[in-house]
TrEMBL record:
<dbReference type="InterPro" id="IPR005149">
    <property type="entry name" value="Tscrpt_reg_PadR_N"/>
</dbReference>
<dbReference type="InterPro" id="IPR052509">
    <property type="entry name" value="Metal_resp_DNA-bind_regulator"/>
</dbReference>
<dbReference type="Pfam" id="PF03551">
    <property type="entry name" value="PadR"/>
</dbReference>
<dbReference type="InterPro" id="IPR036388">
    <property type="entry name" value="WH-like_DNA-bd_sf"/>
</dbReference>
<protein>
    <submittedName>
        <fullName>Transcriptional regulator, PadR family</fullName>
    </submittedName>
</protein>
<dbReference type="InterPro" id="IPR036390">
    <property type="entry name" value="WH_DNA-bd_sf"/>
</dbReference>
<feature type="domain" description="Transcription regulator PadR N-terminal">
    <location>
        <begin position="29"/>
        <end position="101"/>
    </location>
</feature>
Length: 127
């Protein structure tokens, strides 16, 4: 914990090394879009908010990934005008929802294995 200027405790945000995101960025973006359509900056804000600031990704990381996911058919986009400004809203496709479900299963297995190796809990056994 660290203290802010008002004397309140703030959560400690450890620096996120970019290589830790490799292989997980697509799943994170799909998960953020699962509740419904969002424009690119809202995706960045949702990642930041849902991770308590740990995932504060630059636009140069997020927008190319969104375009790649769209080319792969996992998300689609529509243009809307909001307050006189054109915005592109991204949403999951059925293929994107299926990919997210698969990535969640992969993550559950991977994170359990890593946590076990790091000594936080025992590997689950099947009875």
């Amino acid at each position: 914990m660290r203290w802010d200027t008002t004397g309140k405790k703030e959560p400690q945000v450890l620096p996120m090394r970019p290589e830790l995101l490799k292989g997980h960025l697509d799943a994170l973006l799909l998960a953020v879009l699962e509740p419904g359509p969002q424009h690119g900056y809202a995706v960045i804000e949702a990642l930041r908010a849902s991770s308590d600031g740990a995932l504060d990704l630059p636009t140069g990381t997020v927008y190319p990934a969104l375009h790649r996911l769209e080319r792969a058919g996992l998300i689609a986009s529509d243009w809307h005008t909001v307050g006189g400004r054109r915005r592109r809203a991204y949403h999951l496709t059925p293929a994107g929802q299926a990919a997210l479900s698969e990535q969640r299963a992969v993550w559950d297995h991977f994170s359990t294995a890593v946590t076990t190796v790091l000594g936080r809990r025992a590997w689950p056994t099947t009875a």
